[in-house]
C-alpha cells in the first residue's frame, strides 16, 4: 500500500529473490497506469505501463498486474538485483487526463 | 539523445527572491510537465503543456508560481517571491504522447 508523509513503506528482499511492490489507486475511471523507479538524486525513470483493458503486462524481469475490481496495481521484479534498490512509484491517469503519483515504496535489496 | 535537461541542478536563495527554473525537453516531444517533489507530499503535478500551450495549471500552488513555454525546446518555471515552503525538488518531464514521461534530473531548490 501507499502512505503519505515522512516514512515510505520499505520492502527488503534478498538478492536473487522476487519482489512484489503494491499500489492502491483511487479512481475507478483511471485508464492508464505507469510504474516508475527513482534512484537517489535522480528523476523518476519509466519501468512499465499498462492500460485498463489489460490485466497483465510483462517486460524484461518485470511484470505489472492490474486488478480493476479492487483498484490494485502490483509490480513484480524477478531475480532482484542490488541495482534494483530504489523508490518505486505507481501513477494513474484519471478520466480527466490528469496524472497522480503514489507516495512510493522503497525497495532495499540485500546482497 | 541527451534526455530532458534542467538547470540549475541546485539553487539556494533567500525568501522573497525570484527563482527561475529552466527545462529543455526531448526533441520531438509534444508534452511538457512540471512536478514538485517533497517528502511530505510526494510528487505533485504543477502544470503541463501540449505543443507549447498550457493545458492544466490546476496544480500550481498560487499566483507566485508561473510557467511559460515560449517554444518547443524551452520552458521556465518561475517563483516570485519565493518562500521557505517552496523548498523542494522540481522536475521537468516530457512525453511524445500523453503517456510515458521522461523525467529530467531535477532542480533542488532551497529557500532560506
What labels would you give this structure?
heterodimer, A: 111 residues, mainly beta, Immunoglobulin-like, 6-stranded mixed sheet, 4-stranded antiparallel sheet, 10 strands, 0% helix, globular, disordered N terminus, B: 112 residues, 7-stranded mixed sheet
Describe the protein:
The complex is a heterodimer of chains A (about 110) and B (about 110). With about 110 residues, chain A is mostly beta strands. Chain A has one domain (about 5-110): Immunoglobulins (Immunoglobulin-like). Chain A is about 0% helix and about 50% strand. Chain A is built from no helices and 10 strands. Chain A has strands spanning about 10-15, 20-25, 30-40, 45-50, 55-60, 60-65, 70-75, 85-95, 100, 105-110. In chain A, strands 1, 3, 4, 8, 9 and 10 form a 6-stranded mixed β-sheet that branches. Chain A has a 4-stranded antiparallel β-sheet with strand order 2-7-6-5, with no helix packed on it. In chain A, strand 5 (about 55-60) and strand 6 form a beta hairpin. The two termini of chain A are about 25 Å apart. Residues about 1-5 of chain A have low confidence and may be disordered. In chain B, strand 4 and strand 5 form a beta hairpin. The radius of gyration of chain B is 13 Å and the shape is globular. Chain B is an all-beta fold and about 110 residues long. In chain B, about 0% of the residues lie in helices and about 55% in strands. In chain B, about 40% of the residues are buried. Chain B has strands at about 5, 10-15, 20-25, 30-40, 40-50, 55, 65-70, 75-80, 90-95, 100-105, 105-110. Chain B contains no helices and 11 strands. The interface of A and B includes residues 5, 34 and 100 of A.
